[in-house]
Amino acid sequence: MPVDRYDGRVTSDSAPNDIVERIGREWAQAYPDLDTTPVEVLGRINRIASALTHSLDRDLEAHSIGRSEFDVLGALARATRPLRASEVVSTTMLSGASITKLTERLSDIGLVRRRKSDRDGRVVLLELTEAGRELVDTQFPRRLARDTKILESLSPEERTTLITLLRKVSRALPE
Questions:
Q1: What is the pLDDT of residue 120?
Q2: Looking at the 3D structure of the chain, how many domains does it have?
Q3: Domain region containing 41
Q4: Within this chain, do residues 40 and 6 fall inside the same structural domain, yes or no?
Q5: What residues does 114 pair with on adjacent strands?
Q6: CA-CA distance, 173 to 175, in Å (whole number)?
Q7: Would the pLDDT of 16 be above 60?
Q8: Whole-model pTM above 0.85?
Q9: Residue 69, CB half-sphere, CA atoms under 13 Å: how many?
Q10: Three-class HEC string of the chain
């Protein structure tokens, strides 16, 4: 692939400029003494995440729930048993206070069942209702199909490389 000398980034002759490339060029022109490649890497990650998030929001809107609520439903769908709120917190990266609020709402609309633990009455256990399971069973495959379509331009080897590289970047994030 040719290297664009405006800042040393690799470019493709056949691919049209995208908005992130244009922004990267503008930053490189405004600050020629700085390496602006993080703008192109992280800008693309943000753009992809934003587009996928917007699409998921549209799909979930029809069910009167948002992404955070779907994250809770997903955590419960993946579990092999009812979960404590603290377990949902650890798998969704949402706060304990928000989990309480979200599960109360999900319970009110019939997607989650909240019940006291038989062993400790202070502990609330969370599980999907049949309606909650149906929603996840419908929406998750839809989401996965959309994500798969987006990644179709990558070979299996490229996907593996991308996973490895993104894992490295993710691990470099501060806690």
A1: 80
A2: 2
A3: 1-62
A4: yes
A5: 126
A6: 6
A7: no
A8: no
A9: 24
A10: CCECCCCCCECCCCCCCCHHHHHHHHHHHHCCCCCCHHHHHHHHHHHHHHHHHHHHHHHHHCCCCCHHHHHHHHHHHHCCCCEEHHHHHHHHCCCHHHHHHHHHHHHHCCCEEEEECCCCCCCEEEEECHHHHHHHHHHHHHHHHHHHHHHCCCCHHHHHHHHHHHHHHHHCCCC
